[in-house]
Design goal:
Number of helices: 16
Largest sheet: 8 strands, mixed
Oligomer: single chain
Radius of gyration: 22 Å
Number of strands: 16
Helix content: 40-55%
Distance between the termini: 7 Å
Strand order of the largest sheet: 5-6-2-1-7-8-9-10
Shape: globular
Length: about 425
């Protein structure tokens, strides 16, 4: 088999290189870019529905050529308004079926990497691959369907318990059909392998969620930074400690505990600013409730350059996850993004992968999602700002060693191609 391969990367809800604006590529987009630069032929499969803007791109399936080695196959979608809803699940079913319709008429790949979630799409992909003897690897990004119980209203949980039995059956079948499993943490990999009572093999591996820091050549000009601050972040000109949250304002984050704490330390004795960047189903409610609080700034959705400017001027990155296994066993995108700019981390959880990472490397603190504990920690930091500066080098070091996307995803690309070359 030639060293140059035909590879399908399948992830149903990521930003793509053709999306409008200066958007940051995420995990699959970065892997696709690395692999096409290595000379492989890459097809990135994703939904036509932009998950972040809640808009259709083409209102139908469409194959888009990025360059000679790289194509994006957009899959027709019905769309949805809420990320956690019946409509979202129906959309997953629809996209999975459309994948099969398109895949039947496509040139077959040498290897497939498919993300889970969604269970529906991942199960269709692994079955398609098995029938055609195509090596396929399932990448575990979330603990679906187990997470559904954590975010559902109490009255729905008995019903979801029954639904989860069905979805777990589909997930187990999907994992059994795969050649290997990739976890974003050791805990995620163990979770998946326990589902199918499988011992870890050389085909099962861990590759952390990582962040692509711009190269030195791509660094922003001083003029752009100055203009950006004046236009969007004028509050950063004040001499205050800056706490920042960048993410989706939805059910998986408890940002209100943070905002209530911010409200209670809004005094001249504790100069601070809390910046909330991003949108989501709770954005309007939260903005209306806290918009008049002087030390809380809602800046909405930001492009990749604006995020870099904001993080470069911030001190502490907030990680306000709900108390669920999906986050306790996880190290999502956000910590690596914060670490890329040397930020100190404030974590809501008091156990798990992120908690251990922070404690072991002395790069932040846990507030156990407790408002009183958080207020005490915040006051402590504001009084001892030198502590953040002293630990900045530790954050940079950890990022460079474990969370640099260029290294992590190059290793993942090598893993996939090496497995095929050895087994092919």
């Amino acid at each position: 088999m030639s060293n140059k391969m035909n590879i399908w990367l399948i992830q149903r809800s990521e930003i793509t290189p053709i999306d409008y604006g200066e958007n940051r590529l995420m995990r699959t987009g970065l892997i696709a870019d690395i692999m096409q630069r290595q000379g492989h032929k890459v097809k990135f499969w994703t939904s036509d529905f932009n998950h972040f803007q809640h808009k259709h791109r083409f209102k139908g399936s469409k194959l888009v050529r990025v360059n000679n080695n790289y194509y994006i196959q957009f899959i027709k979608s019905i769309g949805y308004e809420k990320n956690f809803s019946l409509r979202r699940y129906l959309d997953d079913i629809f996209v999975a079926r459309e994948f099969i319709n398109i895949a039947h008429n496509s040139e077959l790949p040498d290897v497939i990497l498919v993300s889970m979630p969604s269970i529906e799409l991942a199960s269709k992909v692994t079955n398609f691959a098995k029938q055609r003897n195509i090596p396929v690897y399932v990448e575990i990004r979330d603990l679906w369907p187990d997470i559904f119980i954590d975010v559902a209203p109490i009255f729905l949980r008995p019903f979801l318990f029954v639904v989860n039995l069905y979805l777990n059956y589909k997930l187990k079948k999907c994992l059994l059909e795969a050649n290997g499993v990739i976890g974003i943490t050791e805990s995620y990999l163990r979770w998946a392998l326990r589902k199918i009572n499988k011992k870890r093999t050389i085909n099962d591996e861990v590759f952390h969620m990582s962040y692509l820091k711009p190269s030195k050549q791509a660094n922003l000009s001083k003029k752009y930074i100055k203009d950006c601050i004046e236009r969007k972040f004028s509050f950063l000109l004040e001499e205050k400690i800056v706490f920042v949250f960048i993410g989706t304002l939805g059910k998986t984050n408890d940002i209100e505990t943070v905002l209530n704490a911010a409200k209670k330390i809004s005094t001249k004795n504790f100069p601070n600013t809390f910046v909330i960047a991003g949108k989501g189903e709770n954005y309007s409610m939260l903005r209306k409730k806290y918009v008049n609080q002087k030390n809380i700034k809602f800046v909405g959705w930001l492009d990749k350059d604006e995020i870099k400017v904001l993080l470069s001027k911030s001190d502490v990155g907030i990680l306000p996850y709900i108390d669920a296994d999906n986050y306790k066993l996880n190290i999502p995108n956000k910590p690596s993004e914060y670490l890329s700019e040397g930020l100190y981390l404030a974590l809501s959880l008091n156990e798990g992968e992120m908690y251990n990472l922070i404690k072991k490397n002395n790069i932040g603190f846990s507030y156990s999602n407790n408002e009183k504990i958080l207020i005490k920690k915040l006051k402590d930091l504001i009084k001892n700002r030198h502590k953040i500066k002293e630990n900045k080098k530790l954050s940079f070091k950890l990022f460079n060693n474990y969370f640099d996307a260029n290294k992590t995803y190059s290793d993942l690309a090598f893993f996939l191609t090496e497995r095929i070359n050895k087994n092919g």
